[in-house]
Each structure stands twice: as C-alpha cells, then as structure tokens.
Amino acid sequence: MRVPRALNPRIQNQILKKFGVYEKVLPVQTTPSRKVPDHIIKPDYLTDKKIIVPSVPEIKDVNQIRGMRRSCKLAANILQQLNKFIQPGITTDEIDEFVHNLSIEAGAYPSPLNYNGFPKSVCTSVNNVVLHGIPDLRLLENGDIVNVDITVFFKGFHGDCSKTFLVGDVDDRGLELVGVTEECLNIGIKSCGPGVPFTEIGSKIYKHAKKCGLTVIPSVLGHGIGEYFHGLPEIYHTINTYPGVMKPGMTFTIEPAITHGSEDTVLLEDNWTLLTEDGSRSAQIEHTILITENGAEILTK
Ligand code: MF3
Ligand code: CO
Ligand code: CO
Asked: Can you tell me which atom of ligand 1 is nearest the CA of 160?
C-alpha cells in the first residue's frame, strides 16, 4: 500500500474545489529594471516635452492611423512569438527579458518601463493576479495561466495588446475561463462601429460573461491610445453610462478581465499588482482597434 505523503506547501496552496486547481501566487523577488539604449526614442513620460492628451476621443488622420498600424503590428508580433517561449520552468522575468529585447531590436521602446514608475518592460499576471503583475523570479508551473500585456512605443505611437497563455496542462475551469474571456473580447469588438455608443461594448461583454456564469472585473477599463499610452475614451467592460458614440478614426483598446469569483480586487503595496480578493483566477485579453467606416479593424492582429 502507498503511504500518503504530507502535502507540500505549494499543493496545500491549491484551491481544489470552488475555483478549480491552481496555485495562488504572490509576488516574489525580481531583478533590476532593464536598460534601453540611447538611440531608442522614448515616450513623452520619460522626456521633458510632455504630450497633451486630447480632452475628447481623438479622430486620427491618415498619418496617425499609419503610425498606429505600425506600433500595433509590432506589439502583436512580439506577443505571438511568446507562444513557443512560454512553458513550465521559465520565469516571468525571462518573459520580460524576451519582450524587452525584441522591442529594442525592432527599434521600439517597451512602454511599461518606468511608466508612472512601473519597474519592468511588460506586465505578467499569473492565476489570481488580475493585471499589472511585475515580472519576477517565480518559475511558471504546469497548470498556470499567465497574461502577458505588451505595449510598444514605435515611431511615435503606442500599440497595446495582451493574451492569457496556458502553461502546460491547465484544468478545465481554467480553460473555460480563458476561452470565455476570448469570446468576450470578440463579442465586444464585433459590437463596434461608427455611431455605436461606447456603452454597447460593456453591455455585450457583461451579458456574455454572465450567461457563462463568470464575472467581469469592473475596475479594469480599456482606453484611447495613440501618441499617448492612455487617453479617452474610457472603455467599460460592464453595464455603464459612459457618454458618446464611436467615430471612424478613433483608436482604443478593449481589455476585459474575467473571473470565476467575485468582482472585488486588492491592490498590493507595490501599487501595481492587482489581485482578486477571493483568490480566484482572472483571465484578460486585449486588442487595440480602429473604428472604420463600416465597423472595427483589429490593429493588434
Ligand atoms: N498595457 C496596460 C494596459 O493595457 C498598461 C500597463 S501600465 C504599466 O493599459 F505601467 F503597468 F505597464
Ligand atoms: Co495592455
Ligand atoms: Co491597454
């Protein structure tokens, strides 16, 4: 007969019933911020000349749209390259190094680095971390889900996208969570087009999540983006009363975060890492889109 061994602390940490099988994480030690060579052009928040963020959602002209296409394409390209890089045993700090180096090789600045004091070049949010996780020396484990949120500043424009990756074999509840989150983003994007109220996105996403028995985390918003990292409009992912309608030439992100648990979150003392309060997992996915004459185009495809 096999004698059952004492559970190791990691396994004890797993929440086996209510929210599926996974390890609840907290930040661990990390490495110093990475260096950016002098020739890389920095965004306004690292220079003396600050950009004035438009006070209404901006309608971009052809040159600005060209700029957005370039930066978004690069962000999407780097995100895609992570597919074969992410596996059990690598650290999120190695993801940071990978994204940092690819950005710089392409001639772009990794927008998160030193943005309002964020210390790393990318955000990595594992399991119960909702967003803005700081890459660190924790090894990714079989069964983890990890959102990697990449923004690059390339030739004067930011491009922003993220995806939740599956690390090895993820349990069914985790697969369901990531799948429904992707559906929510797609439904949100499909609802977009000229003349459509911004409120549509949130109401469509909310309804789909609810139908699937999942919860949208309401404090996570999408945003206008361009020569600035975050601008108007604010994009709610739940029922909301945000004013205004979409117009051709607007670019903004949609980035719902969805959980099995409650909508409540806690911000850690690092002032970045946002966790679910109940320890349930959260998945997130993000695209930057352009409103066109007859719908919306995904720029970070
Ligand atoms: N990319 C994130 C977003 O989707 C913002 C990250 S800000 C950082 O809006 F400072 F944490 F990097
Ligand atoms: Co992002
Ligand atoms: Co964003």
From this structure: 1
